[in-house]
Amino acid sequence: MKSITIKGSERESVGKVATKAIRNAGMVPCVIYGGSQPVHFAAEEKAFKSLVYTPNAHTVVVDLGGKTTNVILQDIQFHPVSDKILHIDFFQLNENKEIMMEVPVKVVGTSPGVLLGGDLRLNLRRVKVKALPKNLPDYVEANISELQMGNKLYVTKLATNNFKLIHPDNTVIAQVKISRAAMKAAQEAAKAEKGGAKKKK
C-alpha cells in the first residue's frame, strides 16, 4: 500500500486551552495509539489533504523531528459547521500484527449485462480488509466480466492475495439491474414475437 508522510511536532500540553491555541494557529491536534503510550502531536491542516480528501487508502509515516512512526488513520473529527478538521486519531502499525482497514473497490472488466442495456450498481465502494501492514492492498478488484442482466457479484468472488475480506459471504459488491429501456425493449420484442406468431396462423 502507498504511504504518505506527515511532518509534525510533539506537544506536551494536551488541555483544552493548548488544543484551542493549536487550532487557532492552523494546526490539527493528533494522537497516536497502539504503542507503549499515546503520542500527542500537531501538524498543519494542509498536510492532511492527500490523506483525508481522497478516495484512496494510504498508510502514513508520521515524522516528528526525525523520529518516524508507521500508522494508519483510525478516526477523524470535523467541525459540524465549517467542516474543518478538529482532531485525528492514528493507530501505530506493528509489522507482525494484522490490521483492519477500509480500501476502495476497483471495477475491472466489461459486463455482458451492461452491454445489453443493464445498469451497473456498485453496492460497496470500499471494503474492509485484514492483513499484515506489508500486505495491505491499495484497492480490491471487482471483476464484472461474468455479470449478466440481473446477476450479482458477491464478496466471495473477489480475489484476495495475502489479505482477508471482513464481510459476510452474502455481501453484494455489485449487480446489474435491468434498466427501464432494456425492460421496454424486451416487452416490445415479446409483443412483436406474439404479433408474428398470430400472422403465421
From TrEMBL:
One function term, GO molecular function aspect: structural constituent of ribosome
GO cellular component terms listed in the entry, alphabetical order: cytosolic large ribosomal subunit
GO BP term, pick one: translation
Pfam families reported in the protein's UniProt record: Ribosomal_L25p (PF01386), Ribosomal_TL5_C (PF14693)
Ligase found in the keyword field: no
Listed PANTHER family: RIBOSOMAL PROTEIN L25/GLN-TRNA SYNTHETASE, ANTI-CODON-BINDING DOMAIN-CONTAINING PROTEIN, RIBOSOMAL PROTEIN L25_GLN-TRNA SYNTHETASE, ANTI-CODON-BINDING DOMAIN-CONTAINING PROTEIN
Quaternary data: Part of the 50S ribosomal subunit; part of the 5S rRNA/L5/L18/L25 subcomplex. Contacts the 5S rRNA. Binds to the 5S rRNA independently of L5 and L18.
Its biological purpose: This is one of the proteins that binds to the 5S RNA in the ribosome where it forms part of the central protuberance.
Protein name: Large ribosomal subunit protein bL25
Source species: Flavobacterium dankookense
